[in-house]
Write a structure and sequence with these properties.
Blueprint (H helix, E strand, L loop, with lengths): L8 E6 L10 H8 L3 E4 L16 E4 L2 E2 L2 E2 L3 H15 L1 E6 L9 H9 L5 E4 L4 H8 L13 E5 L10 H6 L4 E5 L5 H9 L7 E6 L7 E6 L3 H8 L5 E5 L6 H19 L1
Parallel strand pairs: 1-6, 1-7, 2-3, 2-6, 8-9
Antiparallel strand pairs: 4-5, 9-12, 10-11, 10-12
């Protein structure tokens, strides 16, 4: 009996927003069993330490204007490695199903009869604002939030941004820095020039950079702080509450420490 028969398996693992401590325990366990790891540009490479040393690590990251592999090539790499080596982990920044094309990869792999599994990740759309003390919803201020891609597959600004600009919801825009001026215009058209804006580059990472302003001033803030991609844009009145929340957090923690002492 041959005990070396390869049993293909693919697990999509959400790597979280950047800070390796925000990887889930289930993600750690999945990596520990991987024979091959295919990882994205937005997945912190420190996380690869959870995979066995002998496992194969393949970078398949994509940045604006610079793709190591096309999506079709990535799909085929996942399948080829699963059939050859068995257990493949596809490590994707944030959550695999939040603008991560995870569903496309799952559909392709399952077309070959390969079992697939998904380990959800902490999405940067909620974790990065939270790390800055920005609560995307707050009673009496924001009843909902939109998470929108700034750049669609045809490289245009999502039409949903114009719809979101008409609402009172908090708006979180991913991959939107190249469309910032268009976004600003849409909100100005709705007379929302004074609406607070936060832009967070490399959120939750040691090299995180932040800029705060309003719809009318954020362009200058970006220039002054040299902000660029990858960054998250947060638009809404909850941004104005940030310092109050930070203050509460510090006071709460210090009181707890004093109580324990």
């Amino acid at each position: 009996m041959n005990n070396n028969i390869v049993k293909p398996k693919v697990t999509l693992v959400g790597a979280g927003p950047g800070d390796p401590d925000l990887l889930t325990l289930k993600g750690v366990k999945a990596l520990a069993e991987a024979n091959v790891v295919l990882y994205d540009a937005l997945a912190n490479e420190e996380i690869l330490a959870y995979a066995p040393k002998k496992s194969i690590k393949i970078f398949v990251g994509k940045r604006k204007g610079c793709h190591e592999y096309s999506q079709d090539q990535i799909n085929q790499l996942i399948v080829d490695n699963a059939l050859t080596y068995g257990n493949v982990v596809r490590l994707k920044g944030g959550d695999p199903f939040i603008f991560g094309r995870g569903s496309e990869e799952i559909e392709y792999v399952e077309g070959f009869g390969i079992p697939t599994f998904v380990v959800p990740g902490i999405s940067s759309s909620i974790a990065v604002p939270a790390n800055q003390g920005i609560s995307l919803t707050k009673r009496g201020i924001s009843e909902s939030f939109w998470v929108i891609t700034g750049t669609t597959s045809d490289r245009n600004l999502s039409k949903d941004v114009a719809l979101a600009a008409k609402s009172t919801a908090t708006v979180v825009i991913l991959m939107g820095m190249s469309k910032l001026e268009q976004i600003i215009t849409l909100f100005q058209n709705e007379s929302k020039g004074e609406t607070p804006v936060a832009i967070v580059q490399n959120g939750t990472m040691p090299n995180e950079k932040v800029g705060f302003g309003t719809i009318d001033t954020i362009s200058q803030v970006v220039k002054d702080n040299n902000l660029s991609s990858p960054a998250i844009i947060v638009i809404g009145e909850v941004v104005r509450e940030r310092n109050k929340l930070k203050g509460f957090h510090k006071e709460f923690i210090s009181n707890k420490v004093c109580a324990r002492e």
